[in-house]
Model the fold of this input.
Amino acid sequence: MFTEKIELKDLDKMDAEYRDLLGRVLTIQADCEIGGPHLYVETMLPAAPSKLDQLIVARTAAEEIDHFRKVARVAGDMGVDVSFVLSQPNEKRFVDSFRGLITTWEGHAVFGFLIDRVGRYQLEEFYDCSYLPLQRILPDAVTCRCSGFCRTLSPRNWAISNTVTTKR
Ligand SMILES: [Fe+2]
Done:
């Protein structure tokens, strides 16, 4: 089993296969991070059933874009440009779940509850990964900020909801 820890400065010493695989993993992760907002922002931001729900959609999208930015930086530092995924059509996304368009609030809730959760588990697989620059961005990208249903049910959002409700 490979147990070494690799910094950016050590990357040139690694096999081409390692560098290629790492670049592919980062590219797919960047695509998944930006793929979420591309699925629902255009349709769900104006269609969210309340001002609070609109705020949650906007915040979730902002967090995903920030995750994209962090992954893109790790990739860019090793010479892999992932900027093309910013404007990639949904049908060309690497992962099937991001190839459609979410057009209903219920669909948005299911996406948040299931797909975002799977994304979290996928990132948790990298916690003890060999590439330390990737490992270092994980705490920000893994924090449970599932969109939709899961988010609406979280105590943090009950607190936000109560704050918003009392300010109306
Ligand atoms: Fe994310």
